[in-house]
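Re: export button greyed out
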Amino acid sequence: MVLKIFFPQCCNTADSGLLVGRWIPGHNSAVVLAVVHYPFIPGQVKKYLSEIQSQTQVDLAVLGSWSMPKEGQEGLDSFLKDLSTIFPQKCWLQLSREIGKRGFTCRVVQNNGTLLQDKEQKSDVDGSEEDKIILVHYDQRKVMLSQLHPVQEADQKSEIEPSELRLVFQTVAQSQPLFFLDKYDDGPLKLTHWQSEGREASIIAELLKQASVPVCICLTWLLSLWLWFCSFRILNIPPVKFITSKLSTCVQSGYRAVHFKTVFSPKKADTHMDFMRKANIFVSFLVDIALGLLLISWLYRENRISKLANTLVPVADHVAKELQQLLEWLMGAPAGLKMNKALDQVLGRFFLYHIHLWISYIHLMSPFIERILWYVGLSACLGLTFALSILSDIVALLTFHIYCFYVYGARLYCLKIYGLSSLWRLFRGKKWNVLRQRVDSCSYDLDQLFIGTLLFTILLFLLPTTALYYLVFTLLRLVVVLFQGVIHLSVDFINSFPLFAIGLRICRPYRLAEGVKFKVLCEESGSPLHLMMEINPLKCSSVLQRYRTPTYSCYPKDSWAALCKKLFVGELIYPWKQKTDKTD
Amino acid sequence: MGADSGPGAPSAVPWRKVLYERQPFPDNYVDRRFLEELRRNIRVRQYRYWAVVRETGLIAQQVSCVALFLTLWSYMEQGELEPSAVLCVCLGCALFGYGLYEVLGGASDGKRTRLADLQSAAVFLAFTFGFSPVLKTLTESVSTDTVYAMSAVMLLAHLVSFPYAQPSPPGSLSLNAALFGSVCLASRLPGALHTFTMLTCALLVFALWPCLLHRVREKADWSFPWAALLVCLAGVRGLGSLWPEGALLLSVALLMLTLLCPLLLVHLQRHKDNIHGPWDEAEIREDLSRFLN
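Workaround output, generated via the alternate export path:
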């Protein structure tokens, strides 16, 4: 069997003493956590260990002895052997350093009955593989702070037996209270282990944590007020609810409320994932606010609002004019296509009247636009996402005429396509059997056949005209949808990007570990193999994938093929339709 | 048949045409008795010449109907026929035909009442009259040649897909094709009333006339050849007043259809050789997918 001893780097130069740590159950390996220096009273050591054990739920034990040769401390060997009788264990490790050598030797004394066996010596003599000892050095701080992925929370009992490495990580992370004992503290015991350098900063952090609790409670109360306001019946009756679900500002504020609910819950984040979610949401919220304030500081300087308002009306006017020209072109003979003149005229006049209505509406609005923009711009202090959502809504409102045209065109076209497809079946003497979901032959009456053929002819000859109108307005609509889609995507990006996790990955790569790699430190005959354990950081892509804040939203509902089919058949498309809430 | 004359086959055990016994013959072996069950021409009907000529009258009169319809359209387009007059004639024909239909049918089938007939007529008249202005402008921007080609194809499709064996409810496809073609043609006419008239005529010629003819054939079989001959003559005469060479062509075509084609059929019937026997026809369906892997 190979015996693995995980040894902290900070104890390399410690004075002689006792090794405190834990035997990993089920594996032939031990984790050394600290060194207790001479002089000590064995009873106090035992008492201290049992105290720590009750705090951390880790079964700590004295693993063996550690000897660091110094001048005047020569005859310790026999003393070290005697120690094993004071702290009875199944195995007793004897680690010792010699002056002038890099590696240190290790002996394992098995203590079953009176048999004392020097394993190291034996393995040297036999050269057999089975009794090797490997010393794995680890950085105690990094291992303590890092989180091994995939995350297995302590409280959820999974079927999979945790691996040896995971057990090592858990042992080090859980025995954090052991490391609180300072080097300069006056106590009955002197220990060597990793200890925090910045006590003062951690005091400030602790104070902030304490202070955040009342703030959280206060904000939760405000949030519940807001939710109470949202649950008014008047906001949930059909037309209002429909409109609010279509306005992206309202949707965004809904997300924000849910985010705040997560962040400001006064409960402590127990698990790693909870903590990361809270931190991610909080950091992206801060960044969002900062970007929004930046936008405000740019927008309200040099009278930019009024400039914007002064350009907005002419732009809308210009768009309407362009549309008018487009319609006039369509009413002629566009691209030499053969359109039905009468239907063409009817449709063209209908749409022209709409544009006329639209222009008068814009002109009615124009005196107020600057003021509206001024107030709307203030919303950016709620965050950039709000400003973007409001921009999206404004675009949707300003291009409402295009949407209307699209809907009329699509409805007409859809009617024609469906009519033609069913009349084509009638033309061939077939019909669609609803019960069997197939086309059956059918004998029609004379008058049915006659009227069906008449309608079929009419629809067939009118189809190109409708299709052209539909095509043009669909293209216009797609441009608007594309613009809104880009805005939605950026809002979604800000909402869901795991900024905190990415920052952690960049600044403290060891915090999110995917695994470990070993480097050979020294390999000499006569001393065991020394390995250095380094932490493999998680890949950035998997950080993104794992810590993305789930949003309820905004992905194209259809695949491209389904979208094309819908466009062809003339069904209305809303590519940025929200999915139904997860809570429902 | 290579397997037929297997030299190594001992005649001690007689061969039986079964697969469930092990026999001392190769799997593909058959003996002399195999061809005894061969039958030839068991389902061939022997035609008599004049009976076939009589049947072809239906086809000939349908072709003539199309010619008659085209003649009528041509006159209407040139403005030589008043639509109101044509409508009156159509109405008279329809009433006469309906009366004849009722007289011949009697109480033989009571499926459709008078009220249902009246309803159908009303629906048809209302729809056609309402849609005729729309139909008139329908193909305005389509070029005339396209319209002609489309109607020609459609009328041809009507003739090809007409259910000559069972013409009483005219087949959907043939009737629809004919109506589509007539709508295309009618949309070229100068006025909305012209369109309406043309569609009425189309309905009479393509939908109601086959029903009447079928009824006539069922009840008074002797009159069917005369009716067909009458229609053919009318078609040739009408086309002749408009385009004499066309009339000549049509009459030649009709004669070939009624006299020459049956002669050919009866003559070729002698050469018919169908074999039937107790075998399955081999069907080679190679599964190529195993070569792909």
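Chain A has a mean pLDDT of 78. The button fix ships in the next patch.
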